[in-house]
Fold this sequence. Notes:
By secondary structure, the protein is α+β, with helices and mostly antiparallel strands.
Amino acid sequence: MQVTGQARLPAQAGFTLAESLSVLMIASIVLVAGIPAFQSGIGSMRSRHVIQDAFHTIQHARDLAIQHKSGTITLCGSMDGMHCHAHWGYGWILFADDNDNHRLDADEVLYRRNDKILAGELVWRGSGGRPYVRFDPTGYAMEFGALTWCPDSGDTRHARQITLNRPGRARLSRDRDHDGIHEDMNMKSLACEIAS
Protein backbone atom coordinates (compact mmCIF):
# COMPACT_ATOMS: atom_id res chain seq x y z
CA MET A 1 0.00 0.00 0.00
CA GLN A 2 1.32 3.31 -1.03
CA VAL A 3 0.60 6.59 0.87
CA THR A 4 0.64 9.65 -1.30
CA GLY A 5 -0.11 12.36 1.27
CA GLN A 6 -2.50 13.51 3.94
CA ALA A 7 -6.24 13.46 3.50
CA ARG A 8 -7.66 16.93 2.89
CA LEU A 9 -10.60 18.34 4.79
CA PRO A 10 -13.34 19.99 2.74
CA ALA A 11 -13.26 23.83 2.65
CA GLN A 12 -15.44 25.40 5.36
CA ALA A 13 -18.21 27.69 4.11
CA GLY A 14 -19.52 30.54 6.28
CA PHE A 15 -18.86 34.04 7.53
CA THR A 16 -16.25 35.20 9.91
CA LEU A 17 -17.22 37.10 13.03
CA ALA A 18 -15.96 40.35 11.49
CA GLU A 19 -18.06 39.85 8.36
CA SER A 20 -21.19 39.07 10.42
CA LEU A 21 -20.72 42.17 12.59
CA SER A 22 -20.20 44.34 9.50
CA VAL A 23 -23.44 43.12 7.93
CA LEU A 24 -25.31 43.61 11.20
CA MET A 25 -23.97 47.17 11.55
CA ILE A 26 -24.95 48.12 7.98
CA ALA A 27 -28.43 46.62 8.43
CA SER A 28 -28.88 48.60 11.68
CA ILE A 29 -27.92 51.87 9.98
CA VAL A 30 -30.34 51.25 7.11
CA LEU A 31 -33.13 50.36 9.54
CA VAL A 32 -32.58 53.43 11.74
CA ALA A 33 -32.46 55.69 8.67
CA GLY A 34 -35.73 54.21 7.38
CA ILE A 35 -37.80 54.60 10.57
CA PRO A 36 -38.63 58.33 10.11
CA ALA A 37 -39.74 57.71 6.52
CA PHE A 38 -41.89 54.81 7.67
CA GLN A 39 -43.46 56.93 10.46
CA SER A 40 -44.13 59.75 8.00
CA GLY A 41 -45.80 57.32 5.63
CA ILE A 42 -48.04 56.04 8.45
CA GLY A 43 -48.95 59.63 9.43
CA SER A 44 -49.78 60.50 5.84
CA MET A 45 -51.92 57.37 5.44
CA ARG A 46 -53.81 58.09 8.69
CA SER A 47 -54.49 61.70 7.63
CA ARG A 48 -55.73 60.59 4.24
CA HIS A 49 -58.08 58.06 5.87
CA VAL A 50 -59.54 60.56 8.38
CA ILE A 51 -60.15 63.31 5.84
CA GLN A 52 -61.53 60.96 3.17
CA ASP A 53 -63.99 59.49 5.68
CA ALA A 54 -65.19 62.98 6.66
CA PHE A 55 -65.33 64.07 3.00
CA HIS A 56 -67.50 61.10 2.02
CA THR A 57 -69.77 61.71 5.00
CA ILE A 58 -70.28 65.34 3.90
CA GLN A 59 -71.11 64.19 0.38
CA HIS A 60 -73.49 61.56 1.77
CA ALA A 61 -75.20 64.22 3.92
CA ARG A 62 -75.82 66.38 0.86
CA ASP A 63 -77.15 63.42 -1.14
CA LEU A 64 -79.49 62.49 1.72
CA ALA A 65 -80.82 66.05 1.90
CA ILE A 66 -81.71 65.97 -1.80
CA GLN A 67 -83.35 62.54 -1.43
CA HIS A 68 -85.10 63.46 1.84
CA LYS A 69 -86.88 66.38 0.09
CA SER A 70 -88.32 67.75 3.32
CA GLY A 71 -86.68 68.98 6.46
CA THR A 72 -83.03 69.32 7.17
CA ILE A 73 -80.15 66.87 7.23
CA THR A 74 -77.64 67.76 9.94
CA LEU A 75 -74.04 66.64 10.23
CA CYS A 76 -72.05 67.56 13.29
CA GLY A 77 -69.31 66.52 15.63
CA SER A 78 -70.67 64.81 18.71
CA MET A 79 -69.14 63.68 21.97
CA ASP A 80 -72.24 61.79 23.13
CA GLY A 81 -73.97 60.73 19.90
CA MET A 82 -76.89 63.09 20.58
CA HIS A 83 -75.72 66.71 20.72
CA CYS A 84 -73.62 68.71 18.28
CA HIS A 85 -70.10 69.83 19.15
CA ALA A 86 -67.49 71.73 17.09
CA HIS A 87 -64.72 69.17 17.73
CA TRP A 88 -65.33 66.21 15.47
CA GLY A 89 -62.36 64.26 16.83
CA TYR A 90 -64.68 62.49 19.29
CA GLY A 91 -66.97 61.34 16.49
CA TRP A 92 -69.85 62.71 14.46
CA ILE A 93 -73.50 62.09 13.71
CA LEU A 94 -75.54 62.45 10.54
CA PHE A 95 -79.29 62.62 11.03
CA ALA A 96 -82.63 63.94 9.76
CA ASP A 97 -83.20 66.99 11.94
CA ASP A 98 -86.92 67.34 11.32
CA ASN A 99 -87.49 69.90 14.10
CA ASP A 100 -84.22 71.75 13.32
CA ASN A 101 -83.02 71.73 16.94
CA HIS A 102 -79.49 70.49 16.08
CA ARG A 103 -79.73 67.39 18.25
CA LEU A 104 -80.76 63.84 17.56
CA ASP A 105 -84.21 63.24 19.04
CA ALA A 106 -85.84 59.84 19.59
CA ASP A 107 -88.21 60.24 16.61
CA GLU A 108 -85.49 61.31 14.13
CA VAL A 109 -83.55 59.04 11.78
CA LEU A 110 -79.86 58.50 12.48
CA TYR A 111 -78.14 57.82 9.15
CA ARG A 112 -74.58 57.51 10.36
CA ARG A 113 -72.68 57.63 13.59
CA ASN A 114 -68.91 57.64 13.78
CA ASP A 115 -67.69 57.33 17.34
CA LYS A 116 -64.02 56.63 16.69
CA ILE A 117 -61.85 58.80 18.87
CA LEU A 118 -59.14 60.16 16.62
CA ALA A 119 -55.47 60.70 17.44
CA GLY A 120 -55.60 64.37 16.61
CA GLU A 121 -58.07 67.21 16.18
CA LEU A 122 -60.81 67.44 13.59
CA VAL A 123 -62.42 70.86 14.00
CA TRP A 124 -65.29 72.48 12.10
CA ARG A 125 -65.21 76.25 11.71
CA GLY A 126 -68.40 77.31 10.00
CA SER A 127 -70.45 80.33 9.14
CA GLY A 128 -72.01 82.01 12.15
CA GLY A 129 -69.77 80.00 14.48
CA ARG A 130 -72.22 77.11 14.37
CA PRO A 131 -70.79 73.67 15.25
CA TYR A 132 -72.85 71.83 12.63
CA VAL A 133 -73.54 71.66 8.91
CA ARG A 134 -77.12 71.53 7.68
CA PHE A 135 -78.23 70.76 4.16
CA ASP A 136 -81.59 71.82 2.79
CA PRO A 137 -83.62 69.74 0.28
CA THR A 138 -81.88 71.42 -2.67
CA GLY A 139 -78.49 70.29 -1.40
CA TYR A 140 -77.37 73.75 -0.34
CA ALA A 141 -75.26 74.03 2.79
CA MET A 142 -76.99 76.26 5.32
CA GLU A 143 -73.59 76.56 7.03
CA PHE A 144 -70.37 76.66 5.10
CA GLY A 145 -66.77 76.72 6.22
CA ALA A 146 -63.84 74.39 6.77
CA LEU A 147 -63.23 71.10 8.55
CA THR A 148 -59.55 70.88 9.49
CA TRP A 149 -57.58 67.79 10.56
CA CYS A 150 -54.38 68.08 12.58
CA PRO A 151 -52.67 64.92 13.86
CA ASP A 152 -51.75 64.81 17.54
CA SER A 153 -48.07 65.11 16.55
CA GLY A 154 -48.80 68.63 15.30
CA ASP A 155 -46.92 67.81 12.09
CA THR A 156 -48.35 70.24 9.52
CA ARG A 157 -47.19 67.97 6.69
CA HIS A 158 -50.13 65.74 7.65
CA ALA A 159 -52.72 68.50 8.20
CA ARG A 160 -55.69 68.35 5.83
CA GLN A 161 -58.79 70.42 5.26
CA ILE A 162 -62.20 70.14 3.63
CA THR A 163 -63.79 73.37 2.50
CA LEU A 164 -67.57 73.42 2.11
CA ASN A 165 -69.12 76.20 0.04
CA ARG A 166 -72.69 77.52 0.08
CA PRO A 167 -73.93 75.36 -2.84
CA GLY A 168 -72.88 72.32 -0.76
CA ARG A 169 -69.76 71.36 -2.68
CA ALA A 170 -66.90 70.01 -0.62
CA ARG A 171 -63.28 70.36 -1.72
CA LEU A 172 -60.15 68.77 -0.33
CA SER A 173 -57.05 70.82 0.43
CA ARG A 174 -53.99 70.29 -1.73
CA ASP A 175 -50.30 71.08 -1.63
CA ARG A 176 -50.38 73.58 -4.49
CA ASP A 177 -46.89 75.03 -3.99
CA HIS A 178 -45.27 71.60 -3.46
CA ASP A 179 -43.64 72.52 -0.15
CA GLY A 180 -45.04 69.44 1.61
CA ILE A 181 -47.83 71.35 3.42
CA HIS A 182 -51.42 71.62 2.18
CA GLU A 183 -52.95 75.04 1.61
CA ASP A 184 -56.48 76.23 2.33
CA MET A 185 -58.71 77.86 -0.30
CA ASN A 186 -56.90 81.20 0.26
CA MET A 187 -53.53 79.57 -0.55
CA LYS A 188 -52.42 79.90 3.08
CA SER A 189 -50.48 76.94 4.47
CA LEU A 190 -52.44 74.92 7.02
CA ALA A 191 -51.16 75.22 10.59
CA CYS A 192 -51.67 72.91 13.55
CA GLU A 193 -51.97 74.13 17.10
CA ILE A 194 -52.65 71.04 19.15
CA ALA A 195 -53.75 71.68 22.71
CA SER A 196 -51.82 69.55 25.18
